[in-house]
Amino acid sequence: MITDWAQLARLRCKQCKHHHLYQLSRINHLDLSRKCIMEEEEAPPEVHHYSSIQEVPWDIQNYWAQRYQIFSKYDEGVWLTDDAWFGVTPEPVANKIAAQMAESAPAGRMILVDAFAGAGGNTIAFALTGKWKRIYAIEKNPAVLKCAKHNAKIYGVQDKITWFEGDCFEILQKQLKDLAPYSVIFASPPWGGPGYRSDQVFNLKTMEPYSLQRLYDEYSVFSKHMVLFIPRTSNLKQIAKLVPEGQKNMVMHYCMEGASKALCIFYGDFDVARLSQ
């Protein structure tokens, strides 16, 4: 830890072994390492950090205008592919979900699997709670996975996450199956693009590329304790059909500025009393 904050000094960063000159008024080694990561890491061609509206494709300009709600540390160099903008959970919503899962998780469940990590919004929020002994994050798209890893470094949680590239169903069955007795699953699956917003009632049977039924069936083999993040207009009757007889499951809307952004269905033995507080 640096203690003489007034000095100017050349400090060697352990991340890249280079020396950097910094004003030491508010900087410790972690800050140096993070800045060095930003300078040294090169983004793939399909990954961007847009700094002005003129750079942003027209179809994601509305999302870029809300960039600080998506990632509060956006200006520190957050990476996203153009498609990833559509799928990132806004940070306040991700933080609320993460806090509720941490508070209500069944006893003995200390591992969280994020089945569709995307650019890392939910994964980072889970890591920041400090609840989980380990987080396993799965993402099929290699460029988006690079974004998630990079963004986790910005938030300082990269050491709490193990990343997997590939199909979540296969990875759960083959590589993570021994962890099933200790795990819960969070899944924010693709919804088939932003066109879902025009549906008054969203049909979970035809959700692409994975229906609610398939998600539930596949994940139940691994763990009955799961949280699925789905469109706010989802058909509640279709959700209810998957609730085991004699059980109750919580469906919760997550709102920002008075408007619902999405909902979560909590399956398994999450503490419903804590969720309703």
Automatic annotation (TrEMBL):
Catalysed reactions, as listed in the record: a 5'-end (N(2),N(7)-dimethyl 5'-triphosphoguanosine)-ribonucleoside in snRNA + S-adenosyl-L-methionine = a 5'-end (N(2),N(2),N(7)-trimethyl 5'-triphosphoguanosine)-ribonucleoside in snRNA + S-adenosyl-L-homocysteine + H(+); a 5'-end (N(7)-methyl 5'-triphosphoguanosine)-ribonucleoside in snoRNA + S-adenosyl-L-methionine = a 5'-end (N(2),N(7)-dimethyl 5'-triphosphoguanosine)-ribonucleoside in snoRNA + S-adenosyl-L-homocysteine + H(+); a 5'-end (N(7)-methyl 5'-triphosphoguanosine)-ribonucleoside in snRNA + S-adenosyl-L-methionine = a 5'-end (N(2),N(7)-dimethyl 5'-triphosphoguanosine)-ribonucleoside in snRNA + S-adenosyl-L-homocysteine + H(+); a 5'-end (N(2),N(7)-dimethyl 5'-triphosphoguanosine)-ribonucleoside in snoRNA + S-adenosyl-L-methionine = a 5'-end (N(2),N(2),N(7)-trimethyl 5'-triphosphoguanosine)-ribonucleoside in snoRNA + S-adenosyl-L-homocysteine + H(+)
GO MF annotations, alphabetized: RNA cap trimethylguanosine synthase activity
One of the record's GO cellular component terms: nucleus
InterPro entries registered for this protein in UniProt: RNA_cap_Gua-N2-MeTrfase (IPR019012), SAM-dependent_MTases_sf (IPR029063)
Top-level taxonomic group: Eukaryota
Family per record: Belongs to the methyltransferase superfamily. Trimethylguanosine synthase family.
Record's protein name: Trimethylguanosine synthase
Source organism per UniProt: Penicillium salamii
